[in-house]
Amino acid sequence: MVDFPQELQQYPVDAPQLRRANGSISTDSFVELSNGHYHQPGLSKHLFNFLTHYQIPTHIGTFGVILGANLFGSYFTGYNGYVIVPWQYQLDLTLFYKTKGERMEARLALINLTDQKNWSPPDPYYGYDSITPDLPFHIEGTIIYRF
């Protein structure tokens, strides 16, 4: 999953504490904005996702597969607009097995299946005008035992 940043903004941009005498607004990232409507940095205006799940019950348990896709529109990382992250997508595939009675479950998740070069802003503490690479293709395994 692509992680979106937490914009370190103590107050909403229209809060009285951020208003300046000239009517502009000062953000926590020291960018002065005129009055208006602003999109939250680090969040895309467009997000499309798809998730499908298929399973086959057998006499020894249930086998299944889950396919997920996310498409994120471009977004900027701060109110200054210096860094714009382009459109990006990620495909994930999970294979699973559940025993009869579902006491035990095993999952193998193939994350970022197509090894896309996706980007996310780092912690806002380090500034709003940089980005870091997301994880490349990787595999996560899970075993659950219920007792």
Short summary of the structure?
The protein has 147 residues and is mostly beta strands. The chain has strands spanning 25-26, 32-33, 47-58, 61-72, 75-76, 84-85, 88-98, 104-111, 119-120, 132-133, 138-145.
Question: Helix content range of the residues, please?
Answer: under 10%
State the shape.
Answer: elongated
Q: Provide mean pLDDT, rounded.
A: 82
Bin the strand percentage: 35-45%
Measured distance between first and last alpha carbons: 30 Å
What is the count of structural domains?
A: 1
The major β-sheet equals: 5 strands, antiparallel
Low-confidence stretches: 1-8
Structural class: mainly beta
Rg, alpha carbons: 21 Å
Spatial sequence of strands, sheet with the most strands: 3-4-7-8-11
Number of helices: 0
Count of DSSP strands: 11
N-to-C series of helices and strands: EEEEEEEEEEE
Structural description of this entry:
The protein is mostly beta strands. The protein has one domain (16-145). Helix content is 0%, strand content 43%. The chain is built from no helices and 11 strands. It has a 5-stranded antiparallel β-sheet, with no helix packed on it. The radius of gyration is 21 Å and the shape is elongated. The model is unreliable at 1-8 (pLDDT under 50).
Tag the structure with descriptive keywords.
disordered N terminus; mainly beta; 147 residues
Q: Which helices and strands, and how do they pair?
A:
Elements: E1 25-26, E2 32-33, E3 47-58, E4 61-72, E5 75-76, E6 84-85, E7 88-98, E8 104-111, E9 119-120, E10 132-133, E11 138-145
Antiparallel strand pairs: 1-2, 3-4, 4-7, 5-6, 7-8, 8-11, 9-10
